[in-house]
Write a structure and sequence with these properties.
Strand content of chain A: 15-25%
Shape of chain B: rod-shaped
Helix content of chain A: 40-55%
Number of helices of chain B: 3
Oligomer: heterodimer
Number of strands of chain B: 24
Strand content of chain B: 35-45%
Number of domains of chain A: 2
Radius of gyration of chain A: 31 Å
Order of helices and strands of chain B: HEEEEEEEHHEEEEEEEEEEEEEEEEE
Order of helices and strands of chain A: HHEEHEEEEEEEHHHEEHEHHHHH
Distance between the termini of chain A: 31 Å
Largest sheet of chain B: 6 strands, antiparallel, barrel
Radius of gyration of chain B: 46 Å
Chain lengths: 401, 383
Amino acid sequence: MISLAGRDILHTWGKFVFTGVGLGLLIGVTLVMAGVYRGMVDDAKVLLDNSGADLWVVQKDTLGPYAESSSINDDLYRSILSLPGVHHAANITYLTMQVHKDEQDVRTMVVGVTAGNLGMTPGWPTYLVAGRQLTRGHYEAVADIATGFKLGDVLKIRRNHYTVVGLTKRMVSSSGDPMVFIPLKDAQEAQFLKDNDAIWQGRYRTEANPAFNRPNVPDLLDAIIASQSTNSYVNAVLVTLKEGYSAADVAQSIQRWKRLTVYTRAQMEGILVGKLIATSAKQIGMFLVILAIVSAAIVAFIIYTLTMDKIREIAVLKLIGTRNRTIASMIMQQAVALGVIGFVVGKITATFSAPFFPKYVLLVPQDTIVGFICVILICIIASLVAIRMAIKVDPAEAIGG
Amino acid sequence: MNSTSLKARTFKLLAVIIPLLALFIYVVLRSGPLAPVAVTLTTIESKPLTPSIFGIGTVASQYTYKLGPILTGRLLHIYVDVGDYVKTGSVLAEMDPIDLDARIFSQQATLKRADATLKEAKIQQAYARTQMQRYKELFDVHSTSEEIATAKRQDFLVSDISLVAAQEDMVRARADLDVLLAQRNSLRLVSPVDGIVTLRNIDSGTTVVAGQSVVEMIDPKSIWINVRFDQIATQGLTQGLLAQIVLRSQKDHLLQGHVVRLEPKADSVTEELLAKITFDALPKPLPPLGELAEVTVDLPPLPAKPTIPNAAVRRNGQTVGVWEIINEKLHFTPIKLGSSDLNGYVQVLEGLNEGSRIVVYSEKALSSKSRIRIVDKIAGTVK
C-alpha cells in the first residue's frame, strides 16, 4: 500500500521542508528560553559547587554572602576551626565590580581566596582551563574565560595591577558575572580601599579635628590615621566538614557557640534559587509559557492551512471512495512529520545559537525530551482541527467550484 | 506523476533530511551533558624544583633620627630642609635661648664673685695663720696670756673653714655655669650621623614641647625593606638568603638583596612573618621611604621528584589528588603534595610515578564517569 502522506509530502517537499524549518526556528527559540531559565538556576548552583564548601558562616541574621552583604572579622575562622567536625575553614570575600584592562572594563565578581593547602582550601577555582593556580600572596589573578581576559593580561582593580596567571570556566556569580580570583589580602584591600582623593581628604578631615590633632600629643594624629586605614573583615567563612559529621549538627554548633548565622548547602541553594533569582526566573518562565502557547497556535494554523491548500485533492480522494480513516491518518502523519522536522531544526539551532548568548544557556536532555513530547502532542491536537475540516468536506467540491 | 520524477523528489527530500538528522545526532551527542569533556594531559616527569617565597614590603630605614629639644621652647632657626645631606655634628636647628644667655652672664658674675670671696678667704686664712704662730711663740716665752694665744688659734681654724666654704662655693658656681652652658648647648639640634633630612616638621617661631621632633633624618646606608610574608608559605625562610626586589616605581628593574633578619615576633593579626631585606647595592637615586616593593626569596633547590602543575591538583570529597589516565579511563589518584614553586609546579611525595599521564586542564569538573576528549589546548584560551 502506498503512503498517501509520503506521496503528498514528496509532491510539495520544498514547501513542506521550509515550513518545517520555519517551525523549527520557533521551537528553537522556545528551547533557548527554557535553556536561559536552566542557565540561571545553574549559575546559582555552580556558584555553590565551585566554592567547594559544606557550610557558609556569615554575619548574624544576614542572608550573606551572595544574597545580602555580610561582614565578619577575619580572625573568626580560627575559632571555627577548633570546633568538632570542621575540616577546613577559609575566609572569603565577594565583591561585584568593574575590572579594568587597558581601555575596556568588564563586570565581574572579584573573589578573595585564602592561601592554603593546594586543593584543600575551599573557595579556590576547582579546575582550570589554562595557566596555573595563584602561588603568590599578592597581585595575581585567575579569571573566568568569559571575562575575555587572557593569560598574562594585566588587570586593574582599584589602584593595584594584577597579572592573569590562570583561566577557568563556568565560575560565575549567581547573576552570571564571571569571577576573578585574587588573593584574600588584596581583595580585602580592594573592598575597602578608597580612591586616593578620598584618602587624602579623609586625612585632612582628621587633621582638622582638634580632638585628634593635639599639639601636646604629637603622635596621636598618626595613630588615628593609621587606625582608619585597616580592614580586617571578610564576607564569609567557608567550612568543609570531616567525614562522618552532619552539616546540620556542625552548623548548629557554630550558630550556638559562635553566635553567627550558618547555612548548609541545601539552605544556600534555597536562598539563591528561591530568593535571589526567583523573580527573574518567574519572568523567564512567563515568557516560556507565552512562547509555548504562540508556538502551538502557529503549528495549528500551519497544519490547518496546509490541509486547506489541498482540500480539492481531499475531495477527489473522497470521491473515489477513500475512507475517512485514511485521510485522517494522512493529515496526522504529515503533522507529526512536520513536528519532527521542526523539533530537529529547533534543537540544532538552539544548540548552535546557545554559546552566542551573553548569559549562560543550559540545554538539558530532560527539557529536550519534554519539548519533543510537547511538540508532537501539539501537532496531533492541531491536526485534529484540520482532520475535522477534511472529513466534513463535500466530495462534490472536487468537481464543482 | 511518473516514477523518475518521484525518485528525484525522494532523493532531494532525503538530501535535506539525512544531513539534518546527522546534524541532530551530532548535536545530541556532542553538546550538553552527554558531550565529552575536553581535557589536556601531561606526563609526569621528575624535575628539581626551586621553591621561592613571595612577599611585599615597604622601603624603610633601619635607623631614623628624630631630633627635638629636651625642654619646651621656641624654635629660633632651622638651617636645613628636606633632602639635605648633613654631616655628623652639623647644627640643623637652634632653639631660642630666651633668658638663658642672661642667666649665663649672671652665673659668670656669680663665679667671679665666688672667686673674689675665695681669694679673700685665702688672705684671711694666711693672716690668721701668721697671727697664730706669732702668739704661739710669744706665749712660749710667756710674753702673752694663754687666752690671747688660744683666741688666735681659734681665729685661724675659723678662717681655714671659711676658705673651704669659699672653695666649695667656687665649685658650685662653676658647676652651675656648666649646667647653663650645657643647656645652652642642647638648644642646638646637632646631627648624630651623616644622613639625609627626611622631615622638617616645624618652622622658626613655633613653640615645641619637650620631646617633639623638629627634624627627622635617616642614615641612607641603613635603608632596607620591611617585608611581610604570609606565614603559610614561609617554610625554609632563613637569614642570608638571596632576594629579588622589584620596586613599584621600577617594575622592570630587578634589584638584588639579602635577608638580613627574620623578626622573632610575627604579626598575629595579619598572620604574616616579618623580615628585613637589605639591598646588595643601594639603588640610585635612593628609593623613597614607604615605597612598595615586591620581594621574592629563592630557597635552595630541592632534589628531583615527580613534579606536576598545580592546575592538575583536584579535590574529590576530602581527598586531594589528580585525575590519572589508566587504561584510557579516568581514575582519581590521591596524592601527597610536597614543596611548590611560584611558577605553579608542585612536587608529589606519594601517589604518582614518573611517566603517569594525568589531566591538567579540563573545561568542566570531572568525575569518574566523565567521557573525555583529549585536546592540546582548551578552546578559547589562546590569544
